[in-house]
Amino acid sequence: MIQVYHNPRCGKSRNCLAFMTQSGLDYEVINYLDNPPSFDELVSILNKLDSKPLDLVRQKEKIWIENFKNKELTDSEIIQAMVSHPILIERPIVIKDNKAIIGRDLDRLNSFL
Fold first, then answer.
1. From what superkingdom does this record's organism come (predicted)?
2. pTM above the 0.85 mark?
3. 10 is annotated as an active-site residue
């Protein structure tokens, strides 16, 4: 089953869900602000994205700027920051099988699916 890590307050995330609905594919919505991924789940998502932890961080979020920007952080510390503050996680994340993408670009999402 396709999984979509979704933030209902994000326009790009809402557009992604609308696209998924129009596609007719079965998918599961995970509101990651209400049900944040664990450390291990984030590691798994990063592996599926083939990305480094910093690539998944919304670096313009106030929490990031005030608490983490310009600090020397390990990958584990960055992941822990996202676990503690899930608003920092880039969205939407679409997972299909063992691959994932950030579903902001609908053309790219269409190719992925």
1. Bacteria
2. yes
3. yes
